């Protein structure tokens, strides 16, 4: 009697502690979830806050006089003249007219430094598109140099970053701002150009095209091969050592570090088969091998989810095993397979490491036109820009990341949509 | 003719063959009283003709394109070698490159040795001839296949069996590609590693503690001869992975437990996909985040605490890598926790245990093998992760266990060794393949053990 009362008392005494532990455990679970969600939030906020500025770039309104004599050309159809003409002269003249107070070599140089190095070529394109402009004047928004861009954006937000600016340049910008001749405009360069050493001229279009070509190869190879392998393993393969070995291989390849596939591409595709380096072709081949396990595994799950009764019914009607697969199992499992393929493609789109091994890190200005042109891809472009010392590239990199992430989000949403809409639940 | 044009022509021929075959089968069937008198449906006869037309020609083309270049090269170079110009493998490659460039017109013909010029002309001639031969052979093979396929069309010919046999073969070939990929990986890393271990003894590589792969490019150059002791790389990799696991395992495991045992259905459907976003973000984005946001933050934090933190600290790279791995661990752990039978929980709760006691003393121990398997898989991923460490960890091979210091990893070194301008046969590039071999072997072992543990566990409760 005494003993059980003692026990009861001890249990009651321990209860408080046990409930405390229970609460601690619950809260640590909540803390873990919060930490994970916080990581997502911080990542997105950080990238967006760094990158949103890059979608607009600083431009300066200049009164450009297309002076044929200054350019040294008389015929706009003469390629040679166009190529040798000094297009920057137009900008220099316009800038000197705007700010006659710049005297001496040093100040002149600072003055010319207001606009981008490549802005002369924009004027060339303008003139070629509209030859009537020759020997006339017009007001043109000229893209500013990246240091000016960085300064102007930070100045607008009230926290000027004047590290790479001279006193004079700061004054000029203030004058321009009063005249309304400097403004932030939508950055067309970002979406139409290839890579460049000048941040204000650099764009992601070359990398996007490279990614597109690479993914096209990856999809065209990995989807049919992956589906075929999944069909074989699920529907036809006999249970033997070979099949087991194939399965072990697939499961293991799914977990092999991606950089190893890059080594394979370098040693086998480039050094042995002489596939051209840096080309979307070899990138696509490497990514195919890398995404195949993912596609095979998801396709097998899709095939498995088709109930056996369908197969039995078709077999009962006299269909051969191939007819069962081609006419019934494959169409029914197609939504699941497509979902897997899109997820695999999203993985391939974000992959960087193996492509570094096969030379897709080269500095490529031209937009790739085909599968064997040298190209780079979006994630590698991000890697290259992240490595660049210019401050303006931080903004560009974040913007490129935003574009990459939105591609990935669209792809994943499509996959979810297909799964929700088209997949049949049995 | 271009290989792609040839390919399109063969495909066109095969489509033509399909319709020919179908027409022929229908024509055969008509006098007999309809297609039910044929053994197979007309489309099978047609498919058979199309496959006969396309398959052999395409296989020939593939093999030809693979072996054309090496064979032509060796034919061309045999003359140059006979000319006594070649002394070493490097010479051979140089001469070969020169011949290629002259043949392509990139390099001017002036001032080149006559042997090399002759070889370049030879190369061009061989190439033209080889292309011509390929075109003729492939087209004739294709046409012959078509004729044979059409001639085989008889009412009693078992076309369906024939087509299905071929299809099975193709399906199996696709499945076998997995084995060939593994084989390809092994061959590429093992052969180059053997080359490497000829110049650097394997014991020095595995047990040496000094890593500085800078080798002299020219023989007479002043500079280090390079030392290839990989221990600092292994410890660096382990240090960063350990930091990552230190972040990922508690957070991942606790969120899995919370989601599986405590969270309401609605929270679960909201939180789980959000956490999985972390798994879908490309690693290059994490690398950028680690290098530009986390590393300066940790550095400033350390400075305010009076600690000396490197700007490329292992802590920054490791913690971001840990964040990347969280969803990996949480979804694997979630799977195994939900697989624990409800009856075990009920039994424990009925004995008066609180929910957390049930989880800690019953559910987690029961799910432990699966959790361990998941953690091992996550570890293998951390070891093989490249972009985060390339962007946020350093290059200096320090032998240290201090997470505030700069360390380098195996993957960083592979990338830096292979993205520079180095001749392919130098010890520097070969070292990358030796590191790749180590990486492959270690992750392979981890994966096999983990997959086996997970599989065993799954079978236990099924």
Automatic annotation (TrEMBL), chain A:
Task: Say yes or no: keyword Membrane present.
Answer: yes
**Transmembrane recorded as keyword:** yes
Query: Which ranges carry the ABC transmembrane type-1 domain?
Result: 208-415
List the protein's name.
Phosphate transport system permease protein PstA
Question: Which is one Pfam family of this protein?
Answer: BPD_transp_1
Coiled-coil stretches noted in the UniProt entry, renumbered to this chain: none
User: Which Gene3D superfamilies does the record associate with it?
Assistant: MetI-like
List the source organism.
Answer: Spongiibacter pelagi
Residues that span the membrane, as ranges = 20-45, 204-233, 253-275, 281-303, 324-349, 399-418
From TrEMBL, chain B:
One MF annotation (Gene Ontology) recorded for this entry: phosphate transmembrane transporter activity
Q: Which GO terms describe its biological process?
A: phosphate ion transport
Limits of the ABC transmembrane type-1 domain? 234-450
> Record's superkingdom?
Bacteria
Q: Does the keyword Cell membrane apply?
A: yes
The way it spans or sits in the membrane comes to:
Multi-pass membrane protein
Instruction: Report the transmembrane regions from the record.
Output: 6-23, 44-67, 132-150, 170-191, 238-263, 275-298, 318-341, 362-383, 430-454
SUPFAM superfamilies, per database record: MetI-like
Subcellular location, principal:
membrane
- Tell me which GO cellular component terms the UniProt record holds: plasma membrane
Glycoprotein as a keyword of this entry, yes or no, is no
InterPro entries found in the cross-reference section = MetI-like, MetI-like_sf, Phosphate_PstC, PstC_N
UniProt keywords (A-Z) are: Cell inner membrane, Cell membrane, Membrane, Phosphate transport, Transmembrane, Transmembrane helix, Transport
The record's subcellular location field reads: Cell inner membrane; Cell membrane
Q: Which NCBIfam families match?
A: phosphate_pstC (TIGR02138)
Q: Per the similarity annotation, which family is this? A: Belongs to the binding-protein-dependent transport system permease family. CysTW subfamily.
Functional description taken from the UniProt entry: Part of the binding-protein-dependent transport system for phosphate; probably responsible for the translocation of the substrate across the membrane.
Protein name per Swiss-Prot or TrEMBL:
Phosphate transport system permease protein
